Amino acid sequence: MTTNHASKPKWARKLDELKRCTSGVAMIEFAFTAPLLLSAGLMGTETANYAITHMQISQIAMQVADNVSRVGEQDVLVARRVFEDDVNEAFVGGEKLGGRYGIYEQGRIIISSLQQNADGGQWLAWQRCRGAKNHVSSYGVEGDGSSGTGFPGMGPTGEEIEAATGTAVMFVEISYTYESVTPFEFLEGDELHYTAAFNIRDSRDLTQLYQTNPVSPVADCDVFSSARPT
Questions:
Q1: Are 83 and 210 in contact (CB under 8 A)?
Q2: Cβ proximity of 174 and 184 under 8 Å
Q3: Alpha carbons 194 and 124: distance in angstroms, whole number
Q4: Which residues are registered as beta bridge partners of 197?
């Protein structure tokens, strides 16, 4: 026996209409899938930003090393003298390139001059640093190899870079702590480490870093600060 739809109570008719209604299916499906799609999108954004940050930190290391390999007074008659102010300007260049990444707030740039000592060995003649990150160079500190031939050079073990006689290698090391840009912090705090090295471009006075008058600040490696040296 069939039941006349009109004879059903009003609530039963409404229930029948609701069973046949499909107008809210799309909204319900979206409600279920939106969190998944949003999560996937944010994770993709985080991963892309992480990859770009890696590339940028690598580029900053290379650019700073290239810049500091070119500095010095413009006198073609004598070997170029390099001043503390020249090195400070190389750090400023790193600040301009890495400003949006907080290069000196979350990281540290270390510039080293690798030369030969009087015994023909490798020598870290001087080193300058800037950045708040508490990181000491992984490849040596100023004065290492001042005599003898025990200091192998700078770089990973077995792949050390060496300076030739009468010249110097500007070795730049960056240590940087990654900061997430999305709520997904699975890459938060990851340590990025890059190095770059360029041979000096011209004949250079390798005896010391000179001072200007008035005296320029020294980017002391014992100071951990994001501010410019004062």
A1: yes
A2: no
A3: 19
A4: 171
Provide the pLDDT for residue 3.
53
Q: What tokens appear for 62 in the block?
A: 């290379």
Residue entry with tokens 């750090």: 91
DSSP lists the bridge partners of residue 176 as 107, 192
Q: Two tokens at 52?
A: 């770009």
Number of helices and strands (H, E) in the chain? 3, 4
**By the 8 A CB rule, do 122 and 131 touch?**
no
Q: What is the DSSP letter of 175?
A: E
Residue 1, pLDDT score = 47
Question: How high is the pLDDT of residue 5?
Answer: 55
Give every residue of the chain whose pLDDT is below 50, as ranges.
1
Please name every residue paired with 97 in a beta bridge, in sequence order, or none if there are none. none
Tell me, rounded to whole angstroms, the distance of Cα 192 from its chain centroid.
Answer: 6
Residue 12's pLDDT is what? 72
